[in-house]
Amino acid sequence: MMREKSSGQRGLKVLVHAGGSARSFSVQTRLYSVVADLAAVLGPYLEAADILVKDAHALDAAAAADRRLRLIDAASLEGLDPRLWLDHHDLAAVSLSNEGQDDEQSSAVWSVLRTIEAAYWRRMKIVTYVDRYGSLNSAQEWLVARALKHVDLVLVSSPATVKKLKVLGVTNELFCTASGILLQRPPSEPLRRAVADRWRIDPAQHPIVVVCPREMFSTEPPVWTAVTQFTNRFVPSRVAPEDGKESRQRFIAQMAGYSDYLVKRHGAQVVFAAMKRPDQPITRAIQETMTERAHSRLISGADAALDELSSLLAVAALQVTARPTSLLLGSPFGVPPIALGDNPALEEMMREAGLTDYYLDYATPGFAMPNLFALDEALQERTERAFAHGEELREAVLKSHGSSAKRARQNRMLLGEWLIDTFFEGQAVLSQRLSIPA
User: Fold this and answer.
1) For 383-413, how does the pLDDT look when each residue is reduced to its tens digit (9 = 90+)?
2) Which of 88, 89, 307, 344 has the fewest CB atoms within 10 Å, i.e. the most exposed one?
3) Domains and CATH numbers, the chain
4) What is the pLDDT of residues 190-217, one digit of tens each?
5) Are 24 and 280 in contact (CB under 8 A)?
6) What DSSP assignment string belongs to 48-101?
7) What is the DSSP string of 107-156?
8) Using CA atoms, how far apart are residues 98 and 230, in angstroms rounded to an integer?
C-alpha cells in the first residue's frame, strides 16, 4: 500500500491526451485506462492530471470525484497547439487510437501525434498507450510509425498490433499489454438499479440486447485534411462513392428489421449504444425506422457516463456490436457477442475469444458496397444460436477476459518500474513507496 507523501517531495504533473470528444464512450474508455493506471501507480505522487479533450464538460463528475483531475476543453482539436500546455508538465501520457475512418477520428489521430511531436521537441518524457490496430490510411500509418519513435514507453494493446507496428518500422521496445478498462470495478447494485430505472429497462422480464452500430459507408463528398505539422502535403481523410448512400440506407433498414425481430421473437428490450459521436446519427436513424421502437432505448456519451453503459452491459443477454470498445466493456460480465464490421481489431478480439463464428465480415473500408447483402438473415441465424448456447458463449468470453485482464495488469507493473527509473532514481524511500500492483 502507498504511504503518505513526505513533505517537500513534489509529485508529477501529467498531461493526459486521448484525442476526440469526451462525449464518446470510446474516448472515455481510453482516458479511464490512462488515468486509472497513473492514479494506481503514483498514488499521492500524482500531483495533477490535466485531461486534454474536446467536450471536457462530459467528464465533470469524474473531475469532481478526484481534485487532481483538471479538465482542459479543446474547442477544436485540429486547431489545438499542444505547446500551450506542455511546458507546465513533467510527463505526457497519450492514448492513440488506430482508427481513422472518418474526419473526427482522423482529427483525433492527428491531434495526438502532434502532442507527441511537441513533447519530444521539449525533451519531455512520453508514455503512449496504443489501441488495437483498426484502419488507418498509408499516410496515417507513416505518421504513427514516425511519432512512436519519439516515445519513451509504448504499451500496445494486442499481439497483432505489436506485429503491425514492427512492420511499419517502429523500432522501440513494444510492450504487449491490454486496455486498463478491463480492470474497472463492476458497477454496484445500487448503480445498476438506478440505471435500470433511468432507462426504463427490466432485465427480469425482458432479455436486454445492446446494439452498437456505426457508420459503415460514407455519404459525403471527399474531405481533405491538412497535415502541415508533419508534411507539406494534404491527405484525403475519406472518399465517398455515390453508392455509399444506397448501402447506408440498406444497412439502416436491415438493422431496424433485425431489432424488430429481437422484440417480436425474443421479447427483448433493445438498447442502442452510440459508442462514438459519429455513430449517433445512424444509430438514431435505425431506432426511428423500427416498428417496435417503443421497446428500444438509445444511450450515448452525450447523455450518459461510462459506468451507465457498463451497468446496462452487466445485465445484457447479448450484444451486437460494430465497435471494439463495447466488447471490452462487456467482457467482465461474459456478455455473448455478435460482431459486425470492417474492423481488424474487432475480428482479432473475436478470434482471441474463439468466437470467429459470431463475427460477420460485413464491409471493407473504402468500398461502397457491403460484403454481406443478407445481413438481417445472418444476424438472426447467429442470434438463434447465441440464445441457444448462451452459457457456452459466456464461458468463452470470461475465459478470454481473464487472459486479457492479466495482460492489462502489466500496464501498471511496467509503468511503475519505468516511473521509478525515470523520475525517482536514487530516491530509495520514495521508490519503495511507489505502488506497483501485481
Assistant:
1) 999 999 999 999 999 999 999 999 999 889 9
2) 88
3) 12-183+405-433 (3.40.50.2000), 189-388 (3.40.50.2000)
4) 999 999 999 999 999 999 999 999 988 7
5) no
6) EEEEEEETGGGGHHHHHH-TTEEEEE-S-TTT--THHHHTT-SEEEEEE--B-S
7) HHHHHHHHHHHHHHHTT-EEEEEEPPP-B--HHHHHHHHHHHTT-SEEEE
8) 18
